[in-house]
Amino acid sequence: MSRLGNRADWADDEEFDDPSALPAQQVITNKDGTKTVISYRFNDENKKVKVTRRIKTTVVRENVNPQVAERRSWAKFGLEKGHAAGPSFDTTSVGENIIFRPSINWKAQAKEAEKDGGEKGSMKDQLKDKKVKCRICSGEHFTARCPFKDTMAPVEEPTSGAGGDADEDKAGALGSGSSSYVPPHLRKGGAGGGEKMGGRFEKDDLATLRVTNVSELAEEQELRDLFERFGRVTRVFLARDRETQRAKGFAFISYADRGDAALACEKVDGFGYRHLILRVEFAKRST
Amino acid sequence: MRPILLSGHERSLNQIKFNRDGDLLFSVAKDKIVCAWWSANGERLGTYNGHQGAIWTVDVSPNTVILATGSADNTVRLWNIKTGECVKVWDFPTAVKRVAFSPDGSKLLAVTEKRMGFLGTIAVLDIAYGDNLNEQADEPSLRITCTESKATVAGWSFLAKYIIAGHEDGSVSQYDPKSGEQVENIQAHEFDHQINDLQFSPDRTHFITASKDKSAKLMSARNLAILKTYTSDTPLNTATITSKKDYVILGGGQAAMDVTTTSARQGKFEARFYHKVFEDEIGRVRGHFGPLNTIDIHPAGTAYASGGEDGYVRVHHFDKGYFDFMYEVEREQLRK
User: Fold this and answer.
1) Which tens digits make up the pLDDT trace of B136-163?
2) Residue A205's CB: how many other CB atoms inside 10 A?
3) Complex ipTM, two decimals?
4) Half-sphere exposure of B149 (CA within 13 A, CB side)
5) Which residue of A has its CA nearest to B274?
6) Start-end of the WD repeats (chain B) (predicted)?
7) Domain residues of chain B, as ranges?
8) CA torsion, points A73, A75, A79, A82, in degrees to nearest 10?
9) Where are the domains of chain A?
10) Does domain B4-335 have CATH number 3.40.50.140?
């Protein structure tokens, strides 16, 4: 079969051609009046790509002013002199699609769109229903602004006659009848200064651990999970940066029972957590 | 609609103008060249080179034969539109801020700046369309001197019956183009808020002014009556009256010197569409990242182009929604 031998398989036909040459463009006229144009080109990876386009030709007849028609034949001049016909890429481009629908209540619609799209708007929406609530007196102000800040512990503690406390405080400020000045922490019968800051946490100081060398990526819940195995944890406080919301590297864990705290202190100190080794010790009084 | 962006200029646009058939668009900017574009596809036909300073203004003769430009190099130049040649140069003592052809193209007015001891003037030049375009009168046929407040913009009313000028102090005045007498002067805008643009309706019976006082006014050319007021929230640089639909387009934005301190969102760099009769704002088209300095409408009302401080001209061909929009009363009127 010598004839078959020197003749390439039909499937390999193209391989034997010059690989850089492309098959000629084919134009097929379809029955419905459209044309199918099959052309070949090389893509960016130097692969041969077959492009099939179906083209429907519509003749749009436009009557223009003869002057306009005459102008169409004008040659380019100035900086464009000698340039080929058709828009050039360095001066003319097509912008992104703009949807322009005139409407009567345009302003209201635009506002709505802004609300939906704008991040600022959505944040505002989230906070719209939030009310500021004081942790001390449940009033509508920030805890730091509470008028009873100095006199009352946070809400959880039974509030005992706010009015009475305020009166007492007033008396203290004026010096309780005597002429001498009474410092705030000695007013109200000489209650400890720490009480104002800590309130009910005062007693927990005994069972509070200070954890340092905490990873920046730590989460309160993770710490809780970690420490809860030694006993009931009443409070987990993870210091965070105000701006970045990342952990600052230390935390306080309060236990209900001091025994549990001691056990946790012993076990977790030196524990590897998130690539850092935790250091745990009993919290010291901050005063 | 997909705008066509024309980036033939390196500096901020000052004025753009369609010819009367709407197939060509001319643009001038602070760089010293004039560009001619095909409005349909944004192809640049050519440039007219020769000015030595920023070009403030351009106008095209009604028969699209002669192009007039006014520049900061104190000249008005006439150009052969087809070939790009400069056919005539008029020298003035100060910069030329506005040129405008009369409706029949036989006259050209030029508004000159008040500077260096020279008062602002409006000069009227006769234009000849002979075989040789170089043959033009050397001297203006009329000079109107603005003694009170300099004119910033001017144009011709219907049948070239009046020259209407907008002034630096916010007033609009009407001059007789034969005698040069001031017929009327009306404080249309807030005092000392310059009128930045003045464009006529297609039949030139009324015109719109755009002012720094953040409003645009539709005024009658016959008696300077204020017909409509369109208020916006930003100083306006330009305003135009659309043909085919009863809209007006206003353009403006934060003044160029304040732009660096504002973001594109706050800058209000949008073309604002108002209904001409009802004075309602009906939409905005964004795209520019600088204030809009100039807007022109295709004479057939099918497209508009805007030029901005950012150096771009954007040509917008309106799509169906634009033409379909109608107020309920308009629709009812149509049904009857």
Assistant:
1) 888 889 989 888 888 999 999 999 899 9
2) 16
3) 0.71
4) 19
5) A102
6) 6-37, 48-89, 285-315
7) 4-335
8) 120
9) 2-55, 143-191, 200-282
10) no
